[in-house]
Amino acid sequence: MKSDLFASENLVQPATAPGMTLQNAKSVKYAVNGEMLARQGSMVAFRGNLQFERKGQGIGGMLKRAVTGEGLALMSVHGQGEAWFAHQAGNCFIIDFEPGDALTINGRNVLCFDPTLSYEIRMVKGAGMTGGGLFNSLFTGTGKLAVVCDGNPIIIPVTAQAPVYVDTDAVVGWSAALDTGLHRSQSVGSMIRGGSGEAVQLKLSGEGFVIVRPSEVTETAAAH
Asked: What is the Cα–Cα distance from 133 to 79, expressed in whole angstroms?
């Protein structure tokens, strides 16, 4: 059988070492030798001797789902084998954490990660219940984290002299050392996304960077 479908770049190659690699721009392959963690529902294929179980989040995760309807629902993958992860054909990126690194990531953008990374769900400081109760996941430690993004991400440097204001539906993540708060702008409201009245953005200040996706459509809205 002949087809461009079977081009070499589409064929899976044997894993050379445990851990995650990009299968292609839209998916991540994880060679499991022990344990790894992934977003529930993100696995598209696997082979080998693997077991899967839901991973609890504790009180913080339960609160997040109650307030925003979107938790960081995880599953644990155990055993030896290979698994492939993707989400709605979004672009995938692997972030390699070194000692001292800390990154805040929106739960909807987490794909999978090494068990050596620590994570906790936190309410974003300065963005309390009046802002819809913004919760994100703080990742620290050493290891790799795969994130998924609608389109190509925009990485914006943040400095003390130039804070950045981002749409709360478009933000993917930011340097954990940045200060956060809500910014309300009456004049901008009628110009953003065809809206009217007051607009609310997440204000990020300090020294670091913010990751933004080129889409503000939420998954819930896109499903309707």
From this structure: 37
Predicted structure pTM score? 0.83
* CA dihedral (41, 114, 202, 135) positive or negative: positive
Contact 71, 65 (CB under 8 A): yes
Secondary structure letter of residue 88 according to DSSP = T
Helices (H), the chain: 58-68, 186-189, 219-222
List the chain residues with pLDDT less than 70. 56-72, 125-134, 185-198, 216-224
**Token representation of residue 131:** 């802002």
By three-state DSSP, how is residue 218 classified? coil
Q: Are 74 and 55 in contact (CB under 8 A)?
A: yes
* pLDDT of res. 68: 44
pLDDT of residue 77: 95
SS3 56: coil
